[in-house]
Amino acid sequence: MLVVGCADAPPPAARGIVFVSSRPPEHEGEEIYVINADGTGERRLTYSGAGKSSVIPQWSPDGNWIAFASNREDDDGRHSIYIMDGDGHNVQRLTPVGSVDYFPHWSPDGTRIAFMSSRDGDAEIYVMAADGSNPQKFSDNDSFDGVYSWSPDGQYLAFTSWRDGERKIYIMGADGSNVRMIGPGHGGTFSDDGRYLTYMDYPASMERGAPCYGRMDLEGVVVEQWCGPQGNLGVRHAQCWSTDRTRVAFVATPNGSVPFPAGDGDFVRLELYVANADGSGLQQLTDNEYYEGHCTW
Fold first, then answer.
1. How far apart are CA 15 and CA 251, in angstroms?
2. What residues are paired with 282 via a beta bridge?
3. Is 282 within 8 Å of 261 (Cβ atoms)?
4. Rounded Cα distance, 112 and 125, in Å
5. Which of 33, 97, 101, 220 could form a disulfide with 183 if both were Cys (CB 3.0 to 4.6 A apart)?
């Protein structure tokens, strides 16, 4: 594995909420930050270089590492999978430069990482050892396949695929076997007990102009659906839970916020919030005119 230095990295700190931000000073790409659940101790963890980005972080199950995707070594903007300490040090690249890799997901025991790769021309699912060795291709077709979660027991992977001509959720064995379609939608995150999958109801989202979500069992029976704003905020995105599942962090659009210019397009302002599992104790953790993204806790 190639070890990549992290210039001007901040000092070590305890595990917190890790998230992505497009804020200045550079505002040339997204970088990874960490913040305590009470809003203190915000620090930048990645320094990708001019025009580069580091995105889609995920804590390892033991809290010692953060996996993420970055194009810091590729002048053509193609991302690879990296890991780093929770303080931003000891950055290690796990997949080749130019391999076009995204969305790393640690297995529950921390020994493997599933990820999405377009290295062969279209998005497929791969699984490798946590040190980057023994990468295996788990899907192979001409359509998009993107992995979204492991089952809590590590026996299954949930993923989204267009292989049948429309966006649907599938599961497969942790060795890539026994692929089966569950139902329509996008995403597929296992519940703590492994009995349900939370997903985005894509057709409803398009109709309403805001994300709609659902929860289905592993036979595709929908048990819950919800859409639109929650509480006094806009729609929630990028939700992540504390390890004890008592609190949840997410990004949302504050009421009254407006799009801001960034590069070639307009982006809606998104801030990071935290609340108790029942929705009480809502606290806004960030406050700037840019957007915060994908979080892990």
1. 19
2. none
3. no
4. 13
5. 220
CB 77, CB 101: distance < 8 Å? no
Q: For the segment 228-247, what is each residue's pLDDT rounded down to a tens digit?
A: 655 555 556 678 888 888 99
Question: Which tokens go with 6?
Answer: 């992290």
Going by their DSSP bridges, the two strands 101-106 and 17-21 should be labelled as unpaired
The full length of the chain comes to 297
- The tokens describing 44, both together, are 């930048």
Residues 228 and 155: their CA atoms lie apart, in Å, by 33
> How far is Cα 73 from Cα 44, in angstroms, rounded to an integer?
19
Query: pLDDT tens digits, residue range 41-53?
Result: 999 999 998 889 9
Q: Give per-residue pLDDT as tens, 92-118.
A: 999 999 999 999 999 999 999 999 999
Q: Tell me the CA distances in angstroms from 209 to 100, 201, 235, 293, one per residue in order.
A: 30, 12, 11, 19
**Proportion of the chain in helix, strand, coil states, percent, rounded to 5:** 0, 45, 50
